[in-house]
């Protein structure tokens, strides 16, 4: 079972959009996928329509000794994609985890319960640094950090996200756990602005030259296109909304961009990811029908 967490100490970089669309793509590739919404602003929880809502969610997962997973796992309208929704309405989890001796490591052991049910777990996190964000980092085997190619955002990544990871590495030295590697995803790129391209190239150069930092930059960026907004409004993953590149546009189709990112992150599932949509009839994109095969 692969566990990834989408993290960035700055808001507005596209963490939820990235998590929702990667989860939808992997599900259409036939993988059993679980989304976990740890953001106190539960946008991911409402991205996909729920076909079978569960009575509980993240609060029960982290605050109780709940054994029946069906009480906290909601099924979306895109099987096999499930979700544990954010439901900490009183904001109690932050204090609970701070007071708990295993607060930063609580999620690691809890996720073992899901190993027989899912191939991939994708965790969405809040923008501000917190014990909940640090807990998600320690529970993952890969971190995905979207960065918008703007100077302030790049600086915030170095100061905030990278600073947090360095502190957690020091903490983890005294435990059996490790801070996972980070994949930077250049997000909301544009073909028109030279400054954005220059900043993106600077980020690539910076992390290509530094060794043993545990941070790399994904080869494929995600271009800021209207298809992502349209997909969110329809409650669909973007690869169904834009499976092919519109005529005369330079940037690849959203489906091709997302597949390339997913293959970089999950190379063991590359064939299944590439096959998504190849069996879909022409003109049927956006209907909510899967075009992928099943992988178990």
List key phrases describing it.
single chain, 296 residues, 11 helices, 9 strands
Give the CA-based shape: globular
CA-atom Rg in angstroms: 18 Å
N-to-C order of helices and strands: EHEEHEEHHEHEHEHEHHHH
Query: Helix coverage percent of residues?
Result: 25-40%
Strand order of the largest sheet: 3-4-5-2-6-1-7-8-9
Could you state the oligomeric state of the chains shown? single chain
As residue ranges, the low-confidence spans are 281-294
Please state the structural category: alpha/beta
Concise account of the structure shown:
The chain is of the alpha/beta class. The protein has helices spanning 15-28, 58-63, 93-99, 106-110, 131-139, 151-172, 194-209, 226-234, 238-241, 254-265, 270-274, and strands at residues 2-6, 33-37, 50-52, 74-76, 81-84, 120-124, 142-147, 182-186, 215-217. It contains eleven helices and nine strands.
How would you describe this structure to a colleague?
The structure is a single chain. With 296 residues, the protein is an alpha/beta fold. Helix content is 37%, strand content 13%. It has 11 helices and 9 strands. It has helices at residues 15-28, 58-63, 93-99, 106-110, 131-139, 151-172, 194-209, 226-234, 238-241, 254-265, 270-274, and strands spanning 2-6, 33-37, 50-52, 74-76, 81-84, 120-124, 142-147, 182-186, 215-217. A 9-stranded mixed sheet has the order 3-4-5-2-6-1-7-8-9, sandwiched between helices. Mean pLDDT is 87; it is low at 281-294.
């Amino acid at each position: 079972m692969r566990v990834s967490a989408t993290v960035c100490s700055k808001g507005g970089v596209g963490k939820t959009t990235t998590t929702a669309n990667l989860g939808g793509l992997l599900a259409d590739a036939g993988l059993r996928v679980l989304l976990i919404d740890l953001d106190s602003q539960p946008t991911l929880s409402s991205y996909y329509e729920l076909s079978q809502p569960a009575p509980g969610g993240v609060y029960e997962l982290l605050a109780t000794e709940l054994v029946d997973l069906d009480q906290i796992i909601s099924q979306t309208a895109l099987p096999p994609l499930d979700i544990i929704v954010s439901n900490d309405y009183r904001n109690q989890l932050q204090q609970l985890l701070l007071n708990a001796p295993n607060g930063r490591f609580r999620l690691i052991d809890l996720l073992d319960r899901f190993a027989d049910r899912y191939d991939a777990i994708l965790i969405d996190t809040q923008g501000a640094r917190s014990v909940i964000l640090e807990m998600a980092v320690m529970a993952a085997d890969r971190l995905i950090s979207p960065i918008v190619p703007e100077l302030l955002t790049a600086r915030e990544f170095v100061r905030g996200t990278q600073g947090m990871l360095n502190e957690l590495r020091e903490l983890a030295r005294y435990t059996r756990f490790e801070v996972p590697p980070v994949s930077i995803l250049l997000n909301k790129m544009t073909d028109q602005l030279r400054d954005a391209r220059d900043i993106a190239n600077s980020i690539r150069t910076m992390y290509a030259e530094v060794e043993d930092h545990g941070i790399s930059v994904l080869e494929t960026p995600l271009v800021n296109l209207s298809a992502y907004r349209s997909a969110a409004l329809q409650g669909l993953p973007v690869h169904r909304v834009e499976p092919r590149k519109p005529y005369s546009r330079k940037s690849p189709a959203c489906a091709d961009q997302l597949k390339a990112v997913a293959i970089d992150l999950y190379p063991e599932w590359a064939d299944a990811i590439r096959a998504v949509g190849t069996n879909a009839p022409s003109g049927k994109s956006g209907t909510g029908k899967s075009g992928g095969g099943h992988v178990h």
